[in-house]
Specification:
alpha/beta; Rossmann fold; Luciferase, domain 3; GMP Synthetase, Chain A, domain 3; nine-stranded mixed sheet; four-stranded mixed sheet; 14 helices; 25% strand; globular
Length: 529
């Protein structure tokens, strides 16, 4: 499906002074000023901003008719598509909290989150997600009469208490996003309209979006990267967003070659799959109109960055963030592409501090825990004041749990997770550094490094997912690592796996790998599996 540059829309209208108050604000704004401009696309179906605004109003009326009040939670079991983003913004329109969940979660996971969030209504997106349809059938969700909205739904049994509203609209909760972090235990992150708009306002400026742009949104809008940085960051400037339910390398390659995609964002695993597909085909992937690509959501291996840049012929912009910061804290600048693994400079109006274990600030260049403060920081964890108090200080700092350093020129470098730090023979081993070294091997697609307690010490263990058709030998990998890493950083074992466990957003689930290690017997030395 090709995409032609739209005709000139005239002088760009001036955005509201002080920004929008709610996340549905941009649609209403562009529906007034450029009603015929294309807004969102799902497959061959395109909705203009005027049509999208009408869809949102209709969905908001449906929610209100079914008892949804301001402060209620609207659970959405979804994959990317028109229904998902319509109900997201419809919940905002009536002051309810959107709780988007990826439909690829298992039913017990959805039930556990539903029990915690206590939504008044659960909405399942139809047509784009077989998993959502299967969950809807399991829940006995109804759908007759809702074909135009593309959903089925079920109502909560008994009464549900809405959360009390206070303060201006921008400070109220817009979305409740559940994240497992590194522990596997889900946490409900309360993000305000202001949090999400803070990122949207800055992201569109960073990418320098214009009416000629086509945004390929394959990152799940149930994940903060896809929701705030990609979807809302594009909606804010009134451009066209292509909503793609799930990633496949072949379909994404086709879209880049044929559809006129200009802006693409992904996690490292997505780019690794695209590079592997190009290797299979024996030629770089075509992307004639692609002008901006970015990566986030997980540490970026420098070898992968260079392969992606060589294939597309443009810089790959790296960034850092987390759900609790809505998400973007820093990103490399379009006028200053980096040739290293920097996560870039801080977004405007974001403060950070690198601190030691006692919370004392460290000088530039030293590694410590990263603390963040600003309008991007969450309101807290839903119904969990104790866990909120653990990570939010009275002064407004968020303790990220990430190890980082800040260079003299203001570039942020992420070293790893504080809880993932491996201490081997008294030396600190940062998994991201070891992963970066191993990822340079030509047979390696993905790598995850974890620690394993043994005899009062910790072993460094590397899990490796090969590139398609490759069969890396553990001893060869050990020799490769030995040439690039100090002895105490070298893995004592390389465990080859056809696939590594990842979240729907492409982040490797290291806690699952650690559980596998705990259940395994002794590992042979010398890099054998």
């Amino acid at each position: 499906m090709s995409w032609a540059q739209p005709e000139s829309q005239g002088t760009a209208p001036e955005l509201p002074h002080g920004g929008f108050d709610r996340i549905d604000g941009p649609v209403a704004f562009w529906a007034r000023h450029r009603p015929g401009a294309p807004a969102v696309r799902e497959g061959g179906r395109v909705r203009s901003y005027a049509e999208f605004a009408s869809d949102i109003e209709r969905a908001a009326a449906f929610l209100a008719e079914h008892g949804v009040r301001p402060g209620d939670r609207v659970l959405m079991v979804q994959e990317n598509g028109l229904a998902a983003v319509t109900f997201l913004l419809a919940a905002s329109r009536i002051g309810a909290w959107a709780v988007p969940l990826n439909a690829r979660l298992a039913w017990p996971e959805i039930e556990a989150i539903r029990g915690h969030a206590r939504p008044r209504i659960t909405v399942y997106t139809l047509g784009v997600s077989p998993d959502a349809e299967a969950h809807a059938a399991r829940d006995g969700a109804a759908g007759p009469g809702l074909e135009a909205l593309g959903v089925a739904y079920s109502l909560a049994e008994g009464d549900v208490e809405p959360e009390a509203l206070s303060g201006p609209a921008r400070d109220r909760v817009a979305a409740l996003l559940y994240t497992s972090g590194t522990t596997g235990a889900p946490k409900g992150v309360m993000l305000s309209h202001g949090n999400i708009l803070f990122i949207a306002e800055r992201t569109c400026r960073i990418r320098r979006l214009g009416p000629e742009d086509l945004i390929y949104c394959v990152l799940p809008t149930s994940h903060i990267f896809g929701l705030a940085a990609v979807f809302m960051g594009s909606l804010h400037d009134g451009v066209l967003i292509d909503l793609v339910p799930r990633f496949t390398p072949e379909e994404t390659a086709r879209a880049l070659a044929e559809d006129g995609v200009t802006v693409f964002s992904g996690v490292p695993a997505i780019y690794a799959h695209l590079v592997a597909l190009a290797a299979q085909r024996g030629a770089p992937l075509a992307a004639p109109r692609l002008r901006y690509i970015s990566v986030g959501g997980a540490p970026l291996d420098l070898a992968l960055k260079r392969e992606v840049e060589a294939m597309f012929g443009i810089p790959l912009y790296n960034g850092y963030g987390l759900t609790e910061t809505s998400p973007t804290v820093s990103t490399t600048a379009i006028d200053d592409p980096r040739d290293d693994d920097s996560a870039g400079t801080l977004l405007a109006d974001v403060d950070v501090s690198i601190v030691d274990r006692n919370g004392a600030a460290l000088p530039a260049g030293e590694v410590g825990e990263l603390w963040v403060r600003g309008g991007l920081v969450m309101k807290g964890y839903y119904r969990d004041p104790a866990r909120t108090a653990e990570v939010l200080t009275p002064e407004g700092w968020l303790k990220t749990g990430d190890l980082a350093r800040l260079s003299e020129d203001g570039n942020l470098y992420i070293v790893g997770r504080l809880k993932e730090l491996i201490i081997r023979s008294g030396f600190n081993v940062y998994p991201a550094e070891v992963e970066g070294a191993i990822a340079g091997h030509p047979d390696v697609a993905l790598v995850a490094v974890v620690g394993r307690a043994r005899d009062g010490n910790e072993d460094v263990v590397a899990f490796v997912q090969p590139r398609p058709g490759a069969a890396p030998d553990p001893e060869a990998l050990a020799a490769f690592a030995a040439a690039r890493l100090a002895p105490y950083k070298r893995p004592s074992a390389f465990l080859i796996r056809n696939t590594l466990p990842v979240t729907a957003a492409g982040k490797i689930l290291k806690h699952e790998l650690k559980r596998e290690l705990e259940a395994a017997g002794p590992l042979e030395p010398g890099g054998r599996t």
